Amino acid sequence: MIISGDEYGPEYVVKSYNAKFDIWGYLVIDNISLGPGKGGIRITPGVNEEEVYRLARTMTFKNAIARIPFGGAKAGIAFNPKSVTAKEKKGIVEWFAKKLKPFCPRYYIAGPDINTGEKEMLWFVKANGSWRSATGKPSHYCRMMSSKKGEKCGIPHEFGSTGYGVARAAGAALDFLHVNAKDATVAVEGFGNVGKFVCKYLSEMGVRIIAVSDSRGAVFNRDGLDYKTLLKVKREAGSVIYYGDAQKIDAKELFEIHADVLIPAALPDVIDGHNVDAIKAKIVVEGSNIPIKEQYEEELHKRGILVVPDIVANAGGVISSYAEYKGYNPKIMLIMVDRKITANTITILAMSKRLKKKPRDVAIKIASERILKR
Fold first, then answer.
1. Residue 74 bears catalytic tag
2. Residue 125 phi/psi, 5° resolution?
3. What is the average pLDDT across 56-80?
4. Strand ranges for 66-216 from DSSP E
5. Taking the mean position of all CA atoms in its chain, how far away is CA 75?
6. Sign of the CA dihedral with 78 first, then 161, 70, and 128 last
7. Residue 74 domain boundaries
8. Angstrom distance (rounded) from CA 331 to CA 316
9. Which of 299, 305, 311, 257 is nearest to 283 (CA)?
10. Mapped to the 3 state alphabet, what secondary structure does 17-29 carry?
């Protein structure tokens, strides 16, 4: 893909090569009309300029829909984190942080994504030289010169804001279709930073989790999977496939399960031409970024399957980032995520039905009006 400009951006496209490790790092700052570009740094072997650009554009719309003063951006470093030592990974993150100094935090604010978390964000801000150059830092970390020494200024990871927002979006979509949450079933692709918390919050709402996958496979039980047991199995055995009272299935089969809600919550482009026709869920809630290309969203929409797009459903992470940036506590953050995502989901689904357009088109129209009026 050759990145072509349009009325939104991109503002900056940065590519940097690390000769020592033979790897590339990418940053796309798509749009800064509403504020500095905000988006996480992912580390995967296959991440490339096209993927980072698509993710940055997603962030542009997502932030506008959530009504937070951030623009859209994303970054990626192309390597397998399992192929290097912890010390080498730290060195790579520090290298990337130093390369991005001219952009942070005026034009770009980093955050966690695939294979990056609190530890990596701490490495990033220290190497970058600005404590405001990233969110998602450890909750104990504060600006060195703060007048409130010792005060916590991060929001702990264990609140799982992205997963919480996805769960609230799923709840709003079920309400829209007049399906009681306690009668609903869900299949969740991924049990990582997003999927784990999706399962936690949905189980607290009474939704029955019938299938979950991770990188090693999937498990299925029509009677339901217990969240706490899933968590224990994942922690102790390394994969959900060791959940005892469940049928082991191929991860690809999860998308074909009869469930009220299907939530892709891990990798991009997991619903494609090979499996789109096999999806049987009533609702698809996009928990991860760009899990479905627009042409396949269109196919699902034509079949009457309700799709809550990523730019609406998984905005909990960036809402949390804004809350952290403003110094709010976790309680206020969760209230913000709930209110914004629930209201946006209901509004966009109602407009979609009334206008007979797919939810993404409606959401992008709303975002565009907010971005371009600047």
1. yes
2. -65, -35
3. 96
4. 71-78, 108-109, 185-189, 208-214
5. 13
6. negative
7. 12-154
8. 13
9. 305
10. EECCCCEEEEEEE
The CATH number of whichever domain residue 137 belongs to comes to 3.40.50.10860
**4 within some domain:** no
Asked whether residue 309 carries a pLDDT value surpassing 50, the answer given is yes
Are 206 and 65 within one domain?
no
Q: What is the dihedral of CA 305, 74, 187, 177, to 10 degrees?
A: -40
Which of the listed residues 154, 171, 200 is the one where a domain comes to its end? Answer: 154
H or E segment at 219? strand 217-220
Of 15, 20, 38, 74, the catalytic one is 74
Is the pLDDT assigned to residue 150 strictly greater than 50?
Answer: no
Q: What are the pLDDT digits (tens) for 206-255?
A: 999 999 999 999 999 999 999 999 999 999 999 999 999 899 999 999 99
pLDDT band of residue 155 (cuts 50, 70, 90) is low
142 has pLDDT over 90: no
pTM, two decimals, is 0.88
Contact (Cβ atoms closer than 8 angstroms) between residue 181 and residue 354: no
Q: Which residues contact 90 (CB under 8 A, 6 or more apart)?
A: 123
The Cβ-side half-sphere exposure at 196, using a 13 Å CA radius, reads 18
Residue 174 and residue 168: Cα distance in Å, rounded? 10
Query: Which of 129, 154, 179 represents a domain boundary (last residue)?
Result: 154
**Same domain assignment for residues 335 and 204:** yes
pLDDT bracket for residue 147 (50, 70, 90): very low
Question: What mean pLDDT is predicted for residues 62-66?
Answer: 95
Q: Angle, to 10 degrees, between the axis of helix 195-205 and the axis of helix 161-176?
A: 50
Same domain, 105 and 53: yes
Exposed e or buried b per residue across 214-245, where buried means at least 16 C-beta atoms within 10 angstroms of its C-beta: beebbbbbeeebbbeebeebbeeeebbbbbee
Query: What is the rounded distance in angstroms from the CA atom of residue 89 to the CA atom of residue 62?
Result: 29
Regarding whether 172 and 140 lie in a shared domain, the answer is no
C-alpha–C-alpha distance, residues 309 and 63, integer Å? 13
The CATH number assigned to the domain holding 308 equals 3.40.50.720
Percent of the chain residues topping a pLDDT of 70: 94
